[in-house]
Amino acid sequence: MKLIMLGSGTSTGVPRVGNDWGSCDPNEPKNRRTRVSIIVENDAGQRILVDTSTDLRAQLLANGIDKVDAVFWTHDHADHCHGIDDLRVMRYDRSNPLPGYAGRVTCERLRRRFDYVFEGQFGYPTIVELKELEQAHLVAGFSFDHVRMPHGPAKSTGFRFEADGKCLVYATDFSEITPAMVKCFKGCDLLVVDCLRERPHPTHAHLEMSLDLARKIKAKRTVLTHLDKSMDYKTLSAKVPAGVSVGFDGMEVKV
Q1: Which pLDDT value is given to residue 122?
Q2: Which one of 70, 127, 218, 246 has the fewest beta carbons within 10 angstroms of its own beta carbon?
Q3: Domain Metallo-beta-lactamase: where (predicted)?
Q4: CA distance 40 to 70
């Protein structure tokens, strides 16, 4: 199984509009971060896309991704779903819509906001057939589990994907570690985890919370993501313990 990190940045990306790099060295390419999305690929080449970030087209081109077999959404915040229109080209050579999965509330909000994607319109076909997560446990060669996570006043979904005898967990946009999260994520081979900044934040995990989750679930390897402009790649890489890596756009990890 393989992780492809399409984007590793927070909702405004790095740099922010106005060429604001914050504490990040602009001469370090790994500090240039688009909004978060990942691909999970199994040994048979089947791919699941998690989140359709606002930078999705550029991410797919940069990583040579021309098709996916299913799409999952963690939640409906703009940086995680507003690139949804870029799925249109992946529908062209298909006889049926792409399978899509999200929690109940996220499904409702996506359907309201992007009705044409899920219903078709003006002679154009439906792009995604959207189902609630509870309706499936095996998709595109992967078995999966999920858990609701606190994201400040909202909720996000964390995912556990299993294939080829390995397990990858994707837990972004959470502000508290719950017993249900620990139970769902326990013993994974790779944890890809929210890590907005070093100081605590009301709606996201900070560095110590991210590392705490990795310890509690006994993750064999951890990659940090959803990083803001305070998280310089080289500075942060020198601080994290063994077994923990700072994520970057285009990063590939074999599980």
Answers
A1: 82
A2: 218
A3: 47-226
A4: 10
- The CA distance from 210 to 25, in Å, is 23
Asked if 222 contacts 214 with a C-beta cutoff of 8 angstroms, the reply is yes
Chain-centre distance for alpha carbon 195: 12
Tokens of 41: 């690929």
CA distance 249 to 106: 26
Q: Tell me the backbone φ, ψ of residue 140, rounded to 5 degrees.
A: 50, 40
Cβ of 199: how many Cβ atoms within 10 Å?
A: 9
**Cα torsion for 189, 136, 91, 85, to the nearest 10°?**
-80
Residue 73: CB atoms within 10 Å: 26
Which pTM does this prediction carry?
A: 0.96
Residue 127's pLDDT is: 96
Up-side HSE of residue 117: CA atoms within 13 Å toward CB?
Answer: 25
| Residue 124 binned pLDDT confidence (cut-offs 50, 70, 90) | confident
Say if residues 191 and 221 touch (Cβ distance below 8 Å): yes
